[in-house]
Design brief:
The protein folds into three domains: 106 residues, Gyrase A, domain 2 (2-Layer Sandwich); 142 residues, Four Helix Bundle (Hemerythrin (Met), subunit A) (Up-down Bundle), CATH 1.20.120; 160 residues, 3-Layer(aba) Sandwich (Rossmann fold). It is of the alpha/beta class. Strand 1 and strand 2 form a beta hairpin. The chain has a seven-stranded mixed sheet with strand order 3-4-5-6-2-1-7, with helices on one face. It is built from 15 helices and 13 strands.
Length: 456
């Protein structure tokens, strides 16, 4: 990281403010070369985190905007390196010219997430905090904001660190007894190991239990809309997202493939998947759509089974309801509530899902549907903000740590000597190190930061 990077840190659309960000050994000198403070002093002469008014210069040294600048010298900066930010008006042309001027000073274009990656590599953030930066940018609900903000503040890292410390104490005690037999150190007994392993196992089990809610908060709940053709699936999807995402006609079988969109309902982000109407068909294209609809059921965390509430339910409706219930929690949605309603039959489905009648024309019942979703996926739990596992990488590392602790426990129960079972404790520590980034391969690090935007 001997080079200096720069990037436009704001969206490439006209806006009130645009930001050019730099990090690296030449960050402050490069920024000073393209920024002329009003007072006549060079930018390099100012202290850290002072906001300086001046002129932003283009590639040919001409003034292109009035701007503000601030610098932070490493290691007391976001990346741990010397950094600078130039804040100008958010004209894409001005920002592009400012960036070109910086390139002329020998800096290079930053890659996606490279600023945050440098912060991680320089020890300013652990990996859970770095991932929280991307989660905070993508947050769509207050729950997602609070989770990401808490994780960025170190809540998850501290929770993992407590487990790491517990297991480290076990290893340290064992090696102290082994290496210093003449010292007055408490002997390393089976009950000491058992107590430490029990504490670590319970903490890891509780941590893993947060993953279901954490991934729904950060990534949304996969919610599949299924039903026979013309049950109103596409109309409901459009109503929930607030625009015409799916084609709606009176012709059965209009939707031939899955259509995806996102919405927030009851404080819950839903990843809505509108599917082809499930029915027997001789149409080759429609049959492929039906197969994809059934495949979508396999991935669902919530299934909305839609039936035309103005028509009697058919055997196909009941069969689909039972099929959906075998995959995920179900809400039975009776559509077209603005029309005369058909009697609701006794379905004999166990367990019977909650039922809501809705009309996308009048909005009737959408508030009840929202409440049902909110009850099914509460976004607030006993954990503090930021203490949840939110992605598969974190969960896999925690799972490997728990499996290793479990093997150590089993070894203890069958009388295996401490030096043998503590190899499993070392594996658990290695897995926890991957979770926070204390012990992680370069290729994994690169893959994690690929999801970040340029300039962050």
């Amino acid at each position: 990281m001997s080079d200096t990077i720069a990037a436009i840190a704001t969206p490439s659309v006209p806006s009130a403010i645009g930001i050019l960000r730099l990090s690296g050994p030449a960050a402050i000198s490069a920024a000073s070369a393209v920024f002329r403070p009003v007072g006549g002093r060079a930018l390099t002469e100012y202290g850290d985190r002072h906001l300086v008014l001046g002129a932003l210069l283009g590639p040919d040294g001409e003034v292109i905007d009035q701007a503000l600048a601030t610098i932070s010298r490493g290691p007391h900066s976001y990346t741990g390196e010397d950094t600078a930010e130039l804040q100008c008006h958010g004209s894409p042309a001005v920002l592009a010219m400012g960036l070109e001027a910086l390139f002329a000073q020998g800096v290079r274009q930053a890659g996606p997430g490279e600023f945050t990656r440098r912060a991680f590599l320089n020890g300013r953030l652990d990996l859970t905090q770095a991932e929280a930066v991307a989660d905070l940018i993508d947050a769509e609900t207050p729950a997602a904001v609070h989770q990401a903000a808490g994780q960025l503040a170190g809540a998850l890292g501290r929770r993992v660190g407590a487990i790491y410390d517990c297991l480290t104490d076990l290893l340290a005690h064992f090696h102290a007894v082994l290496d210093y037999p003449d010292e007055d150190i408490d002997p390393f007994r089976a009950d000491t190991i058992r107590s430490g392993l029990t504490e670590a196992r319970e903490a890891l089990e509780a941590l893993l239990a947060t993953y279901r809610r954490g991934r729904y908060i950060a990534g949304g709940v996969p919610c599949v809309l299924v039903g026979r053709p013309n049950a109103g699936k596409s109309s409901l999807l459009n109503a929930l997202v607030g625009y015409d995402r799916a084609i709606v006609t009176d012709i059965p079988g209009t939707t031939r493939d899955t259509v995806e969109a996102r919405c927030v309902l009851g404080g819950v982000t839903l990843r809505l998947i509108d599917t082809a109407g499930i029915r027997d068909t001789d149409d080759t294209v429609e049959r492929i759509g039906v197969e994809r609809s059934r495949a979508a059921l396999e991935e669902a965390a919530l299934i909305l089974v839609l039936v035309d509430g103005s028509m009697p339910m058919t055997e196909e409706d009941v069969a689909l309801l039972a099929e959906a219930g075998a995959h995920a929690p179900v809400i039975l949605v009776r559509t077209k509530a603005d029309l005369p309603s058909a009697p609701m039959p006794v379905l004999g489905v166990d367990p019977m899902p909650p039922v809501v009648s809705v009309s996308v024309k009048t909005g009737q019942g959408l508030d009840k549907l929202e409440k049902l979703v909110e009850e099914r996926f509460p976004m607030v739990g006993a954990e503090g903000a930021g203490e949840l596992l939110t992605n598969a990488r974190q969960a896999q590392a925690a799972r490997r740590a728990l499996d290793s602790v479990g093997r150590a426990w089993d070894s203890l129960e069958v009388g295996i000597t401490p030096d043998a079972l503590l190899t499993d404790v070392e594996e658990a520590l290695s897995a926890l190190g991957e979770l926070t980034g204390a012990n992680i391969r370069e290729d994994i690090t690169a893959r994690i930061f690929e999801r970040f935007c340029v300039g962050k």
